[in-house]
Amino acid sequence: MSDKKRLFEKIRKLLAMAEQDSSPNEAMIAAAKARALLREHNLSREDVIFNDSTVKEKRCDTERQRLNDWICRLAGVVAESFDCDHFVNSRRESKQWNQGIVFVGVEEDSEIAGHVFNFLFRFIQNSKTKNKTQFAYGFVLGVQKKLASEAVVPSREMAAKGNSLVLAKKAIVERHMELKKYDGESSTKSTMNAGNEEFKAGYKEGLNCQITPGVKAGSPNENSQLQLDT
């Protein structure tokens, strides 16, 4: 372990002790030691809690050689809602190239975003509709409005108020993305038709989508955390 990692680990432990209610005196001492170390090394609390080592990636396979435009839109909605960024990644499988979506986030954010994306993607894929493209466009728009109106992710409101931890997460993810070499979005373009009946049906389904953001990494059954009320 490098000196920097040892320092960060020490400060994290002190900060954790400072938040304990069992011993107020020890908590005060730990908080004072943490502040002293932060000042000595010109660090902020956010620098220690969120750093490059906490950024994680979650790849979601689509089993497609070229992505539909609605898939890219869905990925963007999910990424934004769960404090992540995303990029398209191509991987060769069984003599052909398949494109997938990779979510980038701090700690469990990317894992949760990946679970949500997989669930919504499969729902659209399995929907019995005459015009799946228009249904998908409507569904994605409905999900976007649902997430925004119900503030499924509290950190959005925190970010709007200038919460330093949320802003630190965003900065770390942006820095990670700048260092990545990714394929860029390559999708087949279609025309969205809001007057289409399938679009309206998809929009309604999206609005009725119930998403629980508490999906944990390694959950044996992600579907138990996500459901659609129709």
Radius of gyration: 21 Å
Percent range for β-strand residues: 15-25%
Overall pLDDT metric: 79
How many DSSP E strands? 7
How many DSSP helices?
A: 9
Percentage of helical residues?
Answer: 40-55%
Which spans have pLDDT < 50 for at least 5 consecutive residues?
156-162, 215-225
Indicate the overall shape: elongated
Number of domains: 2
Key phrases:
17% strand, three-stranded antiparallel β-sheet, elongated, 230 residues, alpha+beta, 53% helix, two-stranded parallel sheet, 2 domains
Structure notes:
There is one protein chain. The protein contains 9 helices and 7 strands. It folds into 2 domains: 3-49; 56-228, no CATH class. Strand 3 (85-93) and strand 4 form a beta hairpin. It is α+β, with helices and mostly antiparallel strands and 230 residues long.
Helix-strand layout with pairing:
Layout: H1 3-18, H2 24-40, H3 45-49, E1 55-64, E2 67-68, H4 69-81, E3 85-93, E4 96-106, H5 109-126, H6 132-150, H7 155-160, H8 164-179, E5 187-188, H9 197-207, E6 209-211, E7 226-228
Parallel strand pairs: 2-5
Antiparallel strand pairs: 1-4, 3-4, 6-7
Helix pairs in contact: 1-2, 4-5, 4-6, 6-9
Provide a short characterization of the protein structure:
Helices cover 53% and strands 17% of the residues. It is an alpha+beta fold and 230 residues long.
